[in-house]
């Protein structure tokens, strides 16, 4: 298995620094960023069909920046003026700070998990148990992220505000890579959809997260790379794989 070209199914990093760029220098490989999926928002008409009324809720739970973008987009499209009294509960400080794109941060009631995980957010939500909670999500959301909320009998409403769709390849695009890296089940499904006759052969496949790993297995593909306590990021997992092959 000779690795020369690696496809990472994510957008290219905006900055000049990335562990993926370090892999190119360290191993002489080419890393290509090409998402297999893309996110598109539900229209206001589509959202209204869910019969969810945003003004009915006094607190919002955010687990992703994409959710923030589409929540405020739909508020604008449905002509709902977000009140200053609305409370925000975020899965991490990074996501909480992203709210500054839409609101005056210091004038709002914002709470977040210090660890970036749902379990640490639950006590904050339980403390404000008189609020009515809305959670903007994707149609392909990962329920494992919020299963602990259900176990604590927290009352909240999931609202699908955006969807994940296949980012189709053009007829001119070829899948001439030695390694494919996936971060969601939808990405794996897109691979099969775009290349129905795909045969893995010597192509190494990496997947991050149990749902993505399950999708690789269900597609009958061989999983070669995934994260671990020793290599918690996908870039680190690829590094460990390439280092082993180099020996």
How would you describe this structure to a colleague?
This protein is α/β, with parallel strands linked by helices. It folds into 2 domains: 110 residues, Rossmann fold (3-Layer(aba) Sandwich); 125 residues, Rossmann fold (3-Layer(aba) Sandwich), CATH 3.40.50. Helices cover 32% and strands 20% of the residues. It has a 6-stranded mixed β-sheet. α1 runs parallel beside α9. The model has no long low-confidence stretch (mean pLDDT 92).
Largest pleated sheet: 6 strands, mixed
Q: What is the level-2 CATH architecture name of the largest domain?
A: 3-Layer(aba) Sandwich
So what's the oligomer here?
Answer: single chain
- The computed structural class is alpha/beta
Count of extended strands: 10
Strand order of the largest sheet: 3-8-7-4-5-6
Count every helix, treating DSSP H or I runs of 4 or more residues as helices. 9
Distance between the termini: 13 Å
H and E order: EHEEHEHEHEHEHEEHEHH
Number of domain units: 2
Choose one word for the global shape: elongated
Radius of gyration: 20 Å
Which regions have little confidence, pLDDT < 50, spanning 5+ residues? none
Supply the CATH class of the largest domain: Alpha Beta
Strand content: 15-25%
Q: Calculate the mean pLDDT score and round it.
A: 92
Report helical residue fraction: 25-40%
């Amino acid at each position: 298995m000779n690795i020369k070209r690696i496809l990472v199914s994510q957008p290219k990093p905006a900055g000049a620094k990335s562990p993926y760029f370090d892999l190119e220098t360290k191993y002489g490989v080419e890393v290509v960023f090409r998402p297999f999926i893309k996110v598109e928002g539900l229209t206001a008409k589509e959202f209204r069909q869910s019969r969810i009324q945003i003004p009915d809720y006094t607190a919002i739970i955010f687990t992703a920046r994409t959710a923030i973008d589409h929540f405020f987009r739909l508020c604008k499209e449905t002509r709902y003026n977000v009140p200053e009294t609305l409370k925000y509960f975020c899965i991490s400080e990074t996501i909480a700070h992203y709210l500054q794109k839409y609101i005056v941060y210091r004038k709002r009631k914002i709470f977040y998990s210090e660890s970036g995980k749902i379990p640490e957010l639950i006590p904050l939500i339980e403390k404000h148990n008189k609020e009515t909670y809305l959670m903007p999500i994707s149609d392909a959301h990962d329920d494992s992220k919020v299963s602990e909320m259900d176990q604590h009998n927290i009352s909240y409403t999931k609202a699908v505000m955006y969807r994940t769709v296949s980012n189709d390849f053009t007829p001119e695009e070829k899948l001439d890579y030695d390694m494919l890296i996936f971060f969601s089940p939808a990405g794996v499904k897109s691979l099969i959809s775009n290349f129905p006759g795909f045969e893995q052969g010597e192509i190494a496949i990496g997947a991050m997260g149990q749902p993505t790993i399950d999708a690789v297995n269900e597609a009958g593909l061989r999983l070669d790379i995934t994260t671990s306590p020793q290599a918690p990021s996908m870039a680190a997992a690829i590094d460990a794989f390439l280092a082993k092959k180099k020996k």
